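User: New here, any thoughts?
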Amino acid sequence: NNGYEAYGELDFEPVVYDNCDVQGRVLVRLDECYQSVDLIKKALNQLPEGPIAVKNEKFPDGETIYRTEQPRGEVFYYAKGNNTIHLERVRIRTPTLPNIPPLLGMLVGHDVADIPAIVHSIDPCMSCTERITDIKEVA
C-alpha cells in the first residue's frame, strides 16, 4: 500500500478489462479518469480542517524510497538527505522506460499502419526515457 495513504478509506474497485489490446488500454485509461474524479471528491469530503502546508527547514540525514502507481505504471523515487535544506541525491525512475521492451511483443503480427495506435496506447513519455551521466573530473 506504499503511496496510497487515503485509499484504504475510499470505496472503489480497480478498473480492469479482459482484452489486452489498444482498445482495452484506452478504455481502462478513460474509466480511470472518471473514477479519479469520484475519488478526488470523496477524498476532499474526508479532508480534515487545518493547515495544508508543512514547513520543512532541513532534510534529515538518511535515505528513503517511495513507489507509487501512475497511469503508465510504477514510478520509483529515491532521495538522500544530508541535514541541509538541499537533498544530496534524488532519483526518479518513470514507468515509460520499462514499458518500451513489451512494445516488441505488442507489435508482432500487426500492420505497419497499426504501430502509432499501439505505441500511443502505452502513452509513452519519450523525454522520461532520457538518461544523463554526470562525469566529475578527478584531479
Observations:
- Residues 6 and 43 are 7 Å apart (CA to CA).
- The mean pLDDT is 86.
- The chain is about 30% helix and 15% strand.
- The longest strand covers residues 62-70.
